Structures are given as C-alpha cells and as structure tokens.
Amino acid sequence: MDQLQARPNGVPTGRREWIAVVDDDLSIRSSLARLLRSEGIAVETFAASTDFLAAIASDGPPACLVLDVHLGMESGFDLQESLAVTHANLPVILMTGHDKVSSAELARRAGPDGFLRKPFDGDLIVGMVRRRTELLDRPA
C-alpha cells in the first residue's frame, strides 16, 4: 500500500493502487476482499467510516471506494459528501441491500455506473472497479 504501482507500460499511475471497502457487514467485506484479491487487486476493508478516514489520513486515499449506503447508525452518503470536499476525485461505488434507497437517488449520487444493489454479481463489481480506476491495463 505504500508504493505506487506502475502499469505494464512502466508509466506510474500517480496514485495508490488499492481499493477500500467500507461496509458494516463482515460477510460482505470478506467476500468482496476475497473476490477483488483473486483478481489481483489490493484491497483493505473497514467496518466504519471512522476507521476508513483514519486509514486515509495516514496512508492517503485509495484508487476507489466501494461504500455501503447503510453503515449501522452511520450513513454512507454522509461519508461520500465529506470525501467530496477532501478527496473530490476519489471514485465511489455505492451499494445497498435496502429498498429504502431509490435507484434514482443512488444514480444521482454515484452516476449510472456507480451503484449496486445487493446481492450483486461478482463480475459486475470487478468490472465496475476496473472501469472506475483503470487498475488493470493488462491484456486479457
């Protein structure tokens, strides 16, 4: 996490090449970490926004944040809004398992390719992370 990665052509990306997952559900954090690591993507997981904010204060921001909208008593939307001030260019993929959050609200906050409803397909989240971060510029 402390080194910048270079793309296969040797050009540095200029950012830390790791993905953060913030979700209060241990099973979601674990499954996403396992999935992303199986694709060669470095990932760190956090149960709460405060843990994530402490990590980026010391290590810098990730290449992308996969963020649950409902973090127990916290709101992922609140974290997203605070990051928009301090890390405006950080790509965020919002996810929710609750029907209370409308697709229109998620799309407004995250863009058409920036939200998922749980449960979701593993290939879908990997593709979204790849598109959002351009982490994997390698031949298929």
Task: Explain how this protein is built.
The chain has 140 residues and is α/β, with parallel strands linked by helices. It has a single domain, classed as 3-Layer(aba) Sandwich (Rossmann fold). The protein is built from five helices and nine strands, in the order βββαβαβββαβαβα. The chain has helices spanning 26-38, 49-59, 76-86, 103-110, 122-133; strands at 4-6, 12-16, 19-22, 43-46, 64-68, 70-71, 74-75, 92-96, 115-117. A five-stranded parallel sheet has the order 4-3-5-8-9, with helices on both faces. Strand 3, helix 1 and strand 4 (43-46) form a beta-alpha-beta unit. The longest helix is centred in the first third of the chain and has 13 residues, at 26-38. It is globular, with a radius of gyration of 14 Å. Mean pLDDT is 79; it is low at 1-15 and 135-140.
Helix content: 25-40%
Q: What is the CATH topology assignment?
A: Rossmann fold
Order of helices and strands: EEEHEHEEEHEHEH
First and last CA, distance: 25 Å
Q: Based on DSSP secondary structure assignment, what is the total number of beta strands? A: 9
Largest sheet: 5 strands, parallel
Count of separate DSSP helical elements? 5
List its traits:
140 residues, Rossmann fold, five-stranded parallel sheet, two-stranded antiparallel ribbon, globular, disordered N terminus, disordered C terminus
Briefly, what is this?
This protein is α/β, with parallel strands linked by helices and 140 residues long. It has helices spanning 26-38, 49-59, 76-86, 103-110, 122-133, and strands at 4-6, 12-16, 19-22, 43-46, 64-68, 70-71, 74-75, 92-96, 115-117.
